[in-house]
Design a protein that fits this description.
301 residues, alpha/beta, Rossmann fold, Methionyl-tRNA Fmet Formyltransferase, Chain A, domain 2, seven-stranded mixed beta sheet, six-stranded antiparallel beta sheet, elongated
């Protein structure tokens, strides 16, 4: 008799893992996700992508743990669910709760491990399948897979990579886990690091106070959200793509060479290749320079 397996997830990171489970030999009994939120200018209720997939598969959808408890699950698999699991539910499923987490635990416990990995300039990232305990991401490790960063990944790109890696890793170990054939490995608490929830203000670039190296990491770490941005008079500029360069510019000074755009920082400079003025669409540096050249040569950021 197959165990009653449920899946909990909400974000785009959840989807490849959910799809892999659907395509596997394991039968899912239902899905736990968060309630639809009002989004867009019309403030229409928008279901999470995991919920859309679940309904297409005609799976039951749950929004709270009391409803899920009534189903008496044997196993809950979690991937970016987005809410804290109640303490009284942690040990309720027969086989516990497995979490697919996009970092090499115990490094970067918490809700934003991928931005934290990029911001820290880590050479290695990865994904962990772990058994959930009440303390955030502190449970024993079932399996891990490293991913070597090339130093150019954005958070959006790295999340997609690690979601696929996590899906493969989960399916590799799930049968053995259910059969009691895997020895769990306790995390080394002395090596634990934590990451915080992101807020919009985290994306602010401050040329007079930051080195270009830090700013470049922020551009990648906060893409797609909350995005890195600069104050621009009484408005702002979002910076979507930038690389470190050797232009000799003062902090906050813009540099323009033909259709190339540069900005000086406390140490070093950035070559900006994709930018977005407030209320406008994303544009190349060349498009931005053609539209704002006069302002660029007369004003700091």
């Amino acid at each position: 008799m197959q165990p009653k397996i449920y899946f909990a997830g909400s974000s785009d990171f959840s989807c490849p893992i959910f799809k892999a489970l659907l395509a596997s030999g394991f039968k899912l009994a239902g899905v736990l996700t968060t309630l639809p939120k009002e989004e867009g200018r019309g403030q229409y209720l928008q279901a999470k992508p995991v919920e859309d997939l679940a309904r297409k598969e005609k799976l039951s959808v749950f929004y709270d743990f009391s409803s899920l408890r009534a189903e008496k699950p044997d196993l809950l698999i979690v991937a970016s669910y987005g809410k804290i699991i109640p303490k009284d539910f942690i040990d309720f499923p027969t086989h516990g709760i497995l979490n697919v987490h996009p970092s090499m635990l115990p490094r970067w416990r918490g809700a934003t491990p991928v931005p934290a990995t990029i911001l820290a300039g880590d050479a290695l990232g990865g994904v962990t399948v772990q058994k959930t305990v009440f303390e955030m991401d502190a449970g024993p490790v079932i399996a891990q897979r490293e991913y070597r960063l090339n130093g150019r990944e954005t958070t959006g790109q790295l999340l997609k990579i690690l979601a696929d890696e996590g899906a493969e890793l989960l399916l590799e170990v799930l049968s053995d886990y259910l059969g009691g054939k895997i020895d769990l490995t306790a995390q080394d608490e002395s090596k634990a690091t934590n990451c915080h929830l992101l807020k919009k203000s985290d994306g602010l670039l401050q040329p007079e106070q930051e080195d270009a190296e830090i700013a470049e990491r922020k551009v990648r770490a906060y893409n797609p959200w909350p995005s890195a941005y600069l104050s621009w008079g009484d408005s702002s500029l979002k910076i979507w793509q930038a690389t470190i360069c050797d232009q000799d510019l003062k902090p906050g000074q813009w540099g323009v060479q033909k259709e190339e755009l540069y900005l000086g920082f406390k140490k070093g400079s950035l070559r900006i290749s994709e930018i977005q003025p407030a209320g406008k669409k994303k544009m190349t540096a060349g498009e931005f320079v053609r539209g704002y050249r006069e302002r660029l040569v007369t004003k700091k950021s």
